[in-house]
Amino acid sequence: MTYSERATKFTNKVARELFEIVERKKTNLALALDVTTKQEFLNITDSVGPYICCLKTHIDILVDFDDELIEQLKRLQAKHSFLIFEDRKFADIGNTVKHQYSQGIYKISEWADIIDAHSLPGDGIVSGLKEVGLPLGRGLLLLAEMSSKGSLATGSYTDATVEMAQRHKDFVIGFIAGRKLLMNDDFVTMTPGVGLDVTKDGLGQQYRTPRDVILESGSDIIIVGRGIYGSGKDVIAEARRYRDVGWNAYEERIGK
Ligand code: 5IU
């Protein structure tokens, strides 16, 4: 199925919006922007904005974070049209994650369209996040698999995560995983650990190609970080390159 056909089937508004952006901008590329200063963060987002459907953030690594950053980020979001995914990987009991999601310095629920969580604590984590996020029209991804070497999220853990998602279809929009996990098209699959030039990073990260991820493994969105903004890279040229390779793999998959 095409991204636009998929978009019409989602009941969750964020999942629908994501695939509408993918189709409109013809990009299944999400940028994982792990930089530590506001200036780098905003400059790269503005440069790469036209080529991405989603910006994945780790807001707590910015050394000079302030509320103004969020306003600037929202302006760039309106300018370029992408969703914001805060890769917070919530992992506590429902009552605690509720506060981590909405309170503290970052007030993630106010600006992040998408968040993610470990399934480890059980259904309560989803229920807690849902209390905050559902009324705001947000979406949650569950971590069903990880790209790093030796990850324990495999086998029955992955299966139980899929079952958890199916019990919370109103709020869980999909998975972080290396491959499409369900035959039906009810969930979004986003895959990190994507790179064209190297296969690992020395700290356990493992890279696969966009073609492997989208065409062979049936994922929907490639998440690319240092492959685009790593040292010495031309970020615009790299973003275009990943967008093109990711989109070609999708067109090949749907037989275009
Ligand atoms: N990330 C992973 N693997 C995972 C999950 C998240 O790499 O299994 I869940 C994050 C970490 C980083 C980005 O923010 O995705 C990948 O960045 P690089 O492309 O620079 O390795």
From TrEMBL:
Record pathway: Pyrimidine metabolism; UMP biosynthesis via de novo pathway; UMP from orotate: step 2/2
GO BP of this protein: 'de novo' pyrimidine nucleobase biosynthetic process; 'de novo' UMP biosynthetic process
Keywords annotated in UniProt: Decarboxylase, Lyase, Pyrimidine biosynthesis
Gene3D superfamilies to which the protein is assigned, alphabetical: Aldolase class I
GO molecular function, one term: orotidine-5'-phosphate decarboxylase activity
InterPro entries in the record: Aldolase_TIM, OMPdecase, OMPdecase_AS, OMPdeCOase_dom, RibuloseP-bd_barrel
Database matches in Pfam families: OMPdecase
Enzyme nomenclature, EC number: 4.1.1.23
Active site: 87, 89, 92
CDD domains: OMP_decarboxylase_like
Family: Belongs to the OMP decarboxylase family.
PANTHER family listed in its UniProt record: OROTATE PHOSPHORIBOSYLTRANSFERASE, URIDINE 5'-MONOPHOSPHATE SYNTHASE
The protein, known as: Orotidine 5'-phosphate decarboxylase
Organism: Acaulospora morrowiae
